[in-house]
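Let us work through a complete example step by step.
Step 1: write down the sequence.
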Amino acid sequence: MMAYPRIAVSAILRRENRYLLVLRGKGQSQGQYAFPGGKVEPGERLDIAALRELREETGIRGDHARFFRLYDLIAHGDDGVLESHYVLAVHLVEAADGQEAVAADDAADAGWFTIEEIRSLPTPPSVLECVEYIDMHGHEPEPRVLSMEA
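Step 2: predict the structure and record it as tokens.
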């Protein structure tokens, strides 16, 4: 049996009014657009993991990862059996302009999207919650812990 919960990270990178999202090519969120991210490796700090995942999935080298949100993502099957449980630490990151995003690793595609475009894309609820908060309140992190069904 798999040990739960698993720890994961994601990285929010914003340029002007567009957010970098990747199309998940596999895993639980396959077919959905999400912030670049993935599992934390043993002994790895969360902020370093967020920057690593950003680089692995998009080729962009980021820096200054700052904690933004913590999501408790629990998914049950139709039979009520636990399918997965992730604790997702979302970080705001910065990156030098001019770096192009190229989908790699388990990302099928990568692109920059406005909040209006994101609202029409298939995304996990946490993605929309993050961009709507930033749209209303700006980039300054207000760390929060939220529970959502995955």
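Step 3: interpret the result. Residues 67 and 104 are 24 Å apart (CA to CA).
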